[in-house]
Amino acid sequence: MDYVSLYSPEAELVLCYPRFSRSCSSRIYLLEGIGVSELCSVGPTRLPGLHFKVLGKGHSSIVVAGVARGNFIVAVKARRIDGKRESLVGEGLALVKASRAGVAPKPLYYGDDIVVMEAIMGPRLVDLVGLNGAEQWVIIEALRAARALDTLGILHLELNRPWKNLLYTGACKGSKALIVDFESTGRGCGNVLSVLGGLARLPGLRDLIISKEMRAIERLYKRTCAKNVYEEIERMVIEALEKREG
Question: How far is CA 7 from CA 23, 114, 149, 206, in A?
Answer without folding.
Answer: 14, 16, 38, 50
